[in-house]
Amino acid sequence: MPWDAVSLNDGTMMPSIAFGTWKIGNGQGPIDQVEQALSVGFEHVDTAQGYRNEAEAGMALKESGLARDEVFVTTKFSGMGTINSSIHGSLKNLGLSYVDLYLIHHPYLALPYIPWAWERMEKVKAEGLTKTIGVSNFEVKHLTVLLAHAKVKPVVNQILLHPYVYEKQFPILEYCKANDIVVEAYSCLTPLTQNPGGAVDKPVNEIAARLRAKPEQVLIAWAKAKGAVVVTTSSKKERLEGYLAAGDLQLTEQDILDIDVAGAAGAPGLAAKTMLRRVVGVALIAA
Question: Any idea which positions bind substrate (predicted)?
């Protein structure tokens, strides 16, 4: 399946689809889910300090029997302590001596002085605690400040990306492309999971019927067509297999345009829901 690894701006190779542990909770469930994802072919696990399930992800990695270099591991600094103390805590939770990618989870965590925070990230990389570093949820204004002072350029920016926010996120996509920063897309299935009945349903369902695929596969293929690395999740084995199979879908330029246009029309209540998620997210990070 054509989920070819992408080359980051420092030469690191990263699998282009990841299994994410956001919202999957704690305990045996997430251990089983991560292990299941690895068993069906996922080679990239994305977690975070703030998800509070790094230990479960680490247990699944151990129980999978896979060699360390067979799995790309991403985690994030979520503001629970300093950047230095947090990476050591994450590595302890994961049972690893290094992660492949370490991200600042949100620009609020780097304020009031982004360059100062980024210097700490560069130090983590220099100490070999992570192979490479990046950011998450950064807007153009944050990236501009960071790049003006960075000695090491961020390799990725992980952002919310689905058809209903594509128009809003487009400047970030263009800025990242111009500066050789890979975009990672999370929550790309939102039109199905959070906003069913919106304008995107019609083109997605029609494309799915024509390609004999499932709507979620079309949305994943859409994100891939935008050049993004996809971060997704499911507790169901057949859905995970479907996500991997979505790498084979070939959307036409018209397919992509139809989804873009429908996404620009918006979904009922999306703006309010997006604002609520941001408020809740900031509150969780502050807590």
Answer: 105
Q: Any idea which residues carry the catalytic annotation?
A: 51
229-232/99-104 β-pairing: unpaired
CATH 3.40.50.150 fits 6-284, yes or no: no
HEC readout, 14-82:
ECCEEEECCCCCCCHHHHHHHHHHHHHCCCEEECCHHHCCHHHHHHHHHHHCCCHHHCEEEEEECCCCC
- Summarised one tens digit per residue, pLDDT across range 155-199 is 999 999 999 999 999 999 999 999 999 999 999 999 999 999 999
Greatest CA separation for the chain: 51
Given phi > 0 = left and psi -120 to 50 = alpha, else beta, which region is 41?
left
Tokens matching residue 136: 């998450």
Query: C-alpha distances in angstroms, 280 versus 150, 191, 283, 284?
Result: 30, 20, 5, 6
Stretches where the chain sits below pLDDT 50 are: 271-287
pLDDT at 85: 97
Global confidence as pTM: 0.92
**Residues forming a β-bridge with 229:** 184
**Domain residue ranges in the chain:** 6-284
Tokens of 115: 């360059």
